Amino acid sequence: GTCSTAVLLHNAITGMNSKKELDIQVVVIPCVGDEFYANRQMTALNAELGSSNNGIPTVLPPIPDDPAFTKKNPNIKNQYFSFGEPHPAILDTYNSMKDELVLDLLYGAPSWTILLRHLNVQGKSQNKGGESSFDPIAPFDGRSIMYIHSGGLEGINTQLLRYKYKGLIELDDINYQERPE
């Protein structure tokens, strides 16, 4: 919720990458608050750590800055999900990914809902001289993704109960999730 892991990872990569040989970008998807809250939290942590010269990770906006995406998806609002509030889009992501990657409904599924919106956006920048360049409008274009799972799997069934009370699922849909080993 505070983007601490992202800041620490960003600082570690920045420290290892003094010669700019690594083309690794840390991207944050706020699950608590919005981009302004995430930026404040990350800046404050960097100041506490004495690492303010390292900058902070890129905050992924709720929808891509891509007119084609907006035209194709006019009903998707340009705002982050309210933390812990059941939402049909989060549930759709959770259900579509549960056979590949088990996600919690507080951090993982909301993050992947936003990440998937950005996944197929084509970048406008070109690689020059074999160098890769980061395009914040299309942050995943031509890149591999490493997702850092935030845990929270123990609470899936109780979160699914909240979806049931909102009328988004039936009670029978809840008990299939066993506790991870």
- For the secondary structure, the number of strands is 2
- SSE order: HEHEHHHH
Portion in beta strands: under 5%
Largest sheet: 2 strands, parallel
> What is the number of helical segments per DSSP (H or I, 4+ residues)?
6
Q: What best-fitting shape do the alpha-carbon axes yield?
A: globular
Q: Which tags fit this structure?
A:
single chain, 181 residues, mainly alpha, two-stranded parallel ribbon, 6 helices, 2 strands, 36% helix
Overview of the molecule:
The protein is mainly alpha-helical and 181 residues long. It is 36% helix and 2% strand. The protein has a two-stranded parallel ribbon with strand order 1-2. Helix 2 links the parallel strand 1 (27-28) and strand 2. The chain starts with a helix and ends in a 16-residue tail after the last helix. The relative contact order is 0.13. The model is unreliable at 126-130 (pLDDT under 50).
Question: Strands, helices and their partners?
Answer:
Blueprint: H1 4-16, E1 27-28, H2 35-49, E2 58-59, H3 67-72, H4 88-97, H5 108-119, H6 156-165
Parallel strand pairs: 1-2
In short:
The chain is 36% helix and 2% strand.
